[in-house]
Amino acid sequence: MVSYEWIKLSWNKNYASHYIPCCPHLDNPNMLLLLGVPGYATDDIFLTALSKYGEIVEAKSQPKPSAIPKFHIPNSSKFFRDFSKSSAFRCVFVQFLSCDGLSNFLAAAKMGISYHIAEYTKPLTGYRKWASEHQSMYPDENELRKECEEYMAEFDERERMKLQREKEMAETPDEDGWITVTKSTKFGASTESAQEKKKDYDKKMEKRKKEMLHLYSFQERENRKESIALLKQKFQEDKEKIAKMKSARKFKPY
To answer: Nearest 5 degrees, angle CA 116-CA 122-CA 126?
Structure first.
């Protein structure tokens, strides 16, 4: 049974408080999980505010809680907003260096803790915030193009290194003689192997069609009876035809 503690979060002492549930992470004894964190409370605020209880390794965000935190890649872009700085509610993972830091925080949370955002940061509010958001909608084209080109160059280099590693793994067998099959080796198959697979597929489909002709045993029996009846009829017709030919060859002088 998970036991939750609650901390109060507000803009300053004159504003209403937002209550945030928190609990230790089930799979990590040194990690604190904060749920329902509003967008104006950034990760750096918790990194600074909770450091008095113990040394903190990192504080990271993600949309929903999970058994294994899936931390996003830090975003250094000036044009694309980072998730941890968005206005959406999220969960925050705070990793303490030791379990003592987490124990100190939970003990203080039982007594009641409140944090005022204005004491740690001074974000834009009111018309200044709206003006800044409006200006960010029209970025400088040259700077935006330069950032996109740099990002794509890094992405292409990562993909090239990834394909190279997969190719090496596909060409080099392991200790037991097995070769790792990767995505690149699947799509990099030769034309001959593709034609062979096509032939095998056609053979399987032809065999399946033949099997589908007679699904039930009574159908097979009826088909056999019909074929025997046709053979008998053909035999009788051929017999009559031969008898006529013989009678036509007989010599009748009178």
So the answer is: 105
